[in-house]
Amino acid sequence: MILLQRVARVESKTKTGIFVSSFKDIFNEALGSSSPCPNLYSFSSVAGISDNGNRIVPMFSPWMSTGVGTSLTAGADWMVTQEVALPFKEWFKSGSNALYDQIFQILQMARDDQEMPYGHSTADLALSSLGLRLNELFVLDVLRYGSKDVLSCLKFFDWAGHQPGFFHTRATFVAIFKILSKAKLMSLMFDFLENYVQQKFVHKARFYNTLVMGYAVAGKPIFALQLFGKMRFQGLDLDSFAYHVLLNSLVEENCFDAVHVVVKQITLRGFVNEITHYLMLKNFCKQSQLDEAETFLHDLVGSGKGLNGRMLGFLVSALCKSGNFERAWKLVEGFRDLELVSMDHAYGAWITELIRAGKLERALQFLYSRKSDESYIPDVFRYNMLIHRLLRDNRLQEVFDLLTEMMEEHISPDKVTLNVAMCFLCKAGMVDVALDLYNSRSEYRLSPNSMAYNYLVNTLCGDGSTDEAYHILKHSIDQGYFPGKRTFSILADALCREGKLDKMKELVIFSLERNFMPSGSTYDKFISALCKARRVEDGYLIHDELNRINVVAIKSTYFVLIDGFNKLRRGDISARLLIEMQEKGHNPTRKLFRSVIHCLTEMENMEKQFFNLLELQLSRQEPSPEVYNNFIYGAALAKKSALAREVYQMMLRSGIQPNLSSDILLLKCYLHSERISDALNFLSDLYQTRTIGRKISNVMVVGLCKANKADVALDVFRDIRDRGVIPSIECYEELAKHLCHNERYDLVVNLINDLDKVGRPITSFLGNTLLYSSLKTQKLYEAWVSLREGQVETSQSSMLGLLIGAFSGHIRVSQSIKNLEEAIAKCFPLDIYTYNLLLRRLSANDLQQAFELFNRLCEKGYVPNRWTYDILVHALFKHGRTSEAKRLLEVMYRKGFTPTECTRAFI
Fold it and tell me: Which family is this protein grouped under (predicted)?
């Protein structure tokens, strides 16, 4: 109802009043204040994107919805969007010309329609049917209106030149030359001039005049001077207009010596006028002769010669560019007081240079001071400049004021105005309105620029409307506007995050086809996302396409691809990528290198590729044990002991002495491959060449234990102890574990005695192993009592014996469970495994103490695991407390744990 009442109110106003008033009212109501946009500052630092393409996600906005699609189809929201967009649409339409739009629509159809060619004669007929009255002013206006559409302008120029009763003038030729020059289409311009040479309907004087002006405007003043010399040789001369076009080109291209020659010719022919004075002043400024320029300007005033506002504006601009702002302002004030010329050009130059120098406060102050006495209203160019700079600084309040001011002053907007307005709407959080304007762009011939595309894409990504952002970005690239790499990256992140990899792939290929290069990190994220989605082949295709255009992928891209192909067991491609990575200057880590070799060894008929890769690596760097070690390691992981041995022998044949790592890697390979005799023989050989220390001993004992060769491991252990080497604690742990498993408890006790003798503490692993065995059987305690008799007991060993007795049931524990924890802590550090053993010990008889212990271990920061919950659930079921057991079982499931088979029997 409120919206309907507002529409009824607005319909009673004048057309201009409707749009401006409605625009202000809507903003004020949206922001909850009677003053224009009071809360826009709350958006300024968090809405839209900054000028360099960095996204700033809106923190609050009543206009933004959860998605673009829902917003534009949701009742009142849709009406609000339309009402906010309406003032903009009508204002932008006021800046367009229906007739000119129709002309360029015909020209574009003739150029773009490929399925049903419009045809030259059909286009001619369509243009002729408009009944256009061609004259110089009309043609110039049409060319100026569509200057961005170069090909259509050329077609219109050609069509107009063939119409009866109309002949192109110097001004129209210069206009088309300027369009081609600004578009940097010099080759096209020279083709145009060459085609013009072949025309039969032009006389010599006009022919040379046009060619001289053409080359001058094209930035080729030397060619123009050569043609001018040819004219003079044939007794021809330039007219006043052509002389000044040539003079301007010489000044622009810094041909200062030639400038004086041409000025002399202009003077001799009596062609000197205000344009000559302007170009002479420009010549002084281009040479940084600002004192001479200012003197020249004052001399013109003193002599009463022609003077216009453009000259004053140019000098003001030159002074500001040199940093002389105060001098420029004094010049402006001086001529304002003289009231000799219009000050619009000088004021425009002053505002422009203030904006370029970042002096926004001074620019705004000047603007409002001039407006207050109604002596100056900036043109659309200055407004656009100021708005653009204010947007960069997120000063949205001032942007809003300037936009409404332009509406009120009936300043006809151009395409730049519409683009900055769209950016403003994005920054202010009104992305739906900006999108509505974008979708209606054909109504007022809008061609969004790269900045507008960046703002739209970034804001839509922040709004969660990734699909809409994707289509807009594709359209922008198709139109020749390439987004900033930051914008592309933001959309790529969103697409990868949402798993829309097909769209991302299409976007990347779409960009590469147009030679647009997003950042390496963007490709890395995309390839990583493809690999995580198990689409490694697609990732490789993208990578291969980048290689084709000589784009070097970043290091992490290779890591992710190699890892992906390793998981697919495609060692051949992994090896190829590894070599390519090195050729591109990236050094693989040892882990990556070895993983590739491991993957390669698991392929069929891999020996040839394996040794080819080894030879290649040896040729790329100085041969060293490290290179060979990587290949021994890969073979060891694949349990290819023969392959590892061959690499080891190659190292010896090459005269490279294997280091300790080489020996350990080959020894591990034998053990992992269960080639025990080879391992023992190799160890025997090592005794002949090096002193066997703890590292090799540790590898041998632990490896034998893991190969379930505890007896052999024990022999090696005894041998190294006899040699005076103290094994690592891991040797004691693995031996104790395997001996307990085989119930050889007498040997376990001897092992603990030896540990005592060398002064090593009991580790958590060893202590837990002993307590676990004690829970299962009383044999360990019996062996302990038997073999420890007569031994000197330390406080640690004495306490350990009591614990073994307590857990095996030989010793009754009357103390609290807390005291039992303290007793264990005196022997070895407790961990979650220790607490699980305690829980198992307690839960058999005392569930209350078991749950007290559970609560305490949680309070101490230990994280219960599957076994913790299973022990308690099993005990509850066993004691008949089924409902409690099921509740705890639910907790267990929520934690991601499943009960053991023994516990499942109760369920």
Answer: Belongs to the PPR family. P subfamily.
* Number of neighbours of residue 587 by Cβ within 10 angstroms: 9
CA distances from 250 to 219, 236, 257, 314 (A): 9, 21, 9, 17
Q: Which residues contact 630 (CB under 8 A, 6 or more apart)?
A: 590, 593, 594, 597, 617
Number of H helices, E strands in the chain: 52, 0
- Which residue ranges make up each domain of the chain? 1-95+380-440, 288-376, 744-830, 841-907
Instruction: Count Cα neighbours of 659 within 13 Å in the Cβ-side half-sphere.
Output: 8
Distance CA 698, CA 720 (A): 10
User: Hey, what are 792's tokens?
Assistant: 């000197």
> What is the rounded distance in angstroms from the CA atom of residue 484 to the CA atom of residue 53?
6
Residues near 430 by Cβ (< 8 Å), separated by ≥ 6?
61, 63, 64, 84
pLDDT in tens, 175-187: 887 777 676 665 6
Distances in Å between the Cα of 792 and the Cα atoms of 74, 726, 749, 753, 795 are 87, 21, 14, 10, 10
Residues 91, 19: contact at Cβ < 8 Å? yes
- 3-class DSSP state of 166: coil
Is the pLDDT at 736 greater than 90? The verdict is yes
Which pTM value belongs to this model?
0.59
641-657 pLDDT, tens digit each: 888 899 899 999 988 88
Predicted pLDDT of residue 855: 92
Question: Which two structure tokens, joined as six digits, stand for 569?
Answer: 């067991």
For residue range 135-172, what is the model confidence (pLDDT) as tens digits? 888 888 888 887 777 888 888 888 888 888 888 887 88
